[in-house]
Amino acid sequence: MQAQRKTEMNAMPAPAQTPEPEARVAPPPFPTIGASGEAPSIPSPAHALQERLESAFAAPVVENRWSPRQTLAFLVFSCGVFWGAMIGGAIHFFG
Length: 95
Known about the structure:
Radius of gyration: 32 Å
Low-confidence stretches: none
Largest sheet: none
Number of helices: 3
Strand content: under 5%
Structural class: mainly alpha
Order of helices and strands: HHH
Mean pLDDT: 77
């Protein structure tokens, strides 16, 4: 039954698309800049976000990074403290 429906659906020709007159075409959902070059009167959240991101990434990047030696020391210290606490807690708990 379902196979028959599938073949019937595939056998049906697609309706012919007729071009719509320009008067029936819907306007875009976002404001566009007119022929005179004036800005749209409706504020766009997307444009505001783009401007904020552009100004945030345009700022000069301050190099305040740790050296690889400092990074490795922090990693070893923090992981050592964590595993020390876990092992010490397990010894104390199961003791």
